[in-house]
Write a structure and sequence with these properties.
Shape: extended
Radius of gyration: 35 Å
Strand content: under 5%
Number of helices: 12
Helix content: 40-55%
Largest sheet: none
Distance between the termini: 85 Å
Number of strands: 0
Structural class: mainly alpha
Length: about 280
């Protein structure tokens, strides 16, 4: 039965006890408790199941540092093959003897992988390029080697690789990097030199900058194999090696779980030694 709303005739004779029995909604101008304290919206907590796998290195999302290091390794292999080739003819437009990128140039010695990696990493970090551009750049370098017989040498690998990265950034990135952005990294290079080098590189590519999806995947998996070699067991484990593995296992557990002060706290779980730990030691 609905509660009757008090009228003007009856409110004058009502006592405080009577007013306490009248609901707030029936009193004109009154505010109910629900209106004073409205329910807050429900916040859903973000949860994660134990079966979720976080994959950080895939064909669609390659690992930046791993791919760049693999590309540096591949470029160095081309330089090694170029020094072993007896048919090397220096091209003026690629040679740093005539067009150096920096004041100091090593034109005679094969660069190390770390030196090539520093060169690539500096460009990619400065221009905020993705790892996919390095895969395209390597494809372009190998394409001019296969089509025109260009020999990668200690005196020209930096200019060849730089132009391959420039073209790869224009093909892959939605917001392409301008040529002038690369000139800030190499003060010895001029805008005219950059344009002429780009046009010469495109002619060597026969203006074909397309890399098909199967070829891109082929390069990606080959670079992955180059970055992560399969572990090799050189010999069987002896007693001393077993003791060292036990010590390494204990150190890894303490790093993960934290040391127990003065032997207090719950006992440490009896975790089995993983095979990856053994392989890491004997590699």
């Amino acid at each position: 039965t609905p509660t009757p709303t008090p009228t003007t005739a009856t409110t004058s004779s009502m006592t405080p006890a009577d007013w306490s029995q009248v609901p707030a909604a029936a009193v004109p101008g009154a505010t109910s408790a629900a209106e004073k304290n409205p329910p807050s919206p429900r916040k859903l907590a973000r949860r994660n199941s134990t079966s979720t796998l976080y994959v950080v290195n895939t064909l669609h999302n390659p690992d930046f540092h791993e791919i760049l290091h693999s590309v540096a390794t591949a470029i160095r292999l081309h330089v090694v093959n170029g020094h072993a080739s007896h048919a090397f003819v220096a091209s003026d437009i690629f040679s740093e003897t005539k067009y150096p990128l920096t004041p100091i140039v090593d034109r005679h010695n094969v660069p190390s992988v770390s030196k090539v990696h520093r060169f690539i990493h500096r460009i990619f970090k400065s221009e905020d390029l993705s790892a996919e551009c390095s895969i395209l750049a390597l494809a372009y370098v190998e394409r001019i080697v296969a089509l025109k017989g260009v020999v990668v040498h200690a005196s020209n690998w930096r200019r060849i690789l730089l132009m391959a990265i420039v073209l790869a950034s224009k093909v892959w990135e939605e917001l392409a990097v301008w040529n002038s952005d690369f000139l800030a990294l190499f003060p010895c290079m001029t805008g005219k030199d950059m344009c002429e080098l780009e046009m010469h590189f495109l002619r060597l590519l026969q203006f074909n900058v397309n890399v098909a999806s199967p070829l891109f995947a082929k390069y990606y998996y080959e670079l992955r194999a180059l970055a992560v070699p399969l572990p090799k067991l050189t010999r069987a484990l002896n007693v001393q090696d077993r003791w060292r593995l036990d010590a390494m296992n204990i150190a890894m557990l303490e790093k993960a779980d934290g040391p127990v002060p003065n032997g207090q706290g719950p006992p440490r779980p009896n975790r089995p030694r993983t095979k990856s730990c053994e392989l890491e030691y004997v590699r």
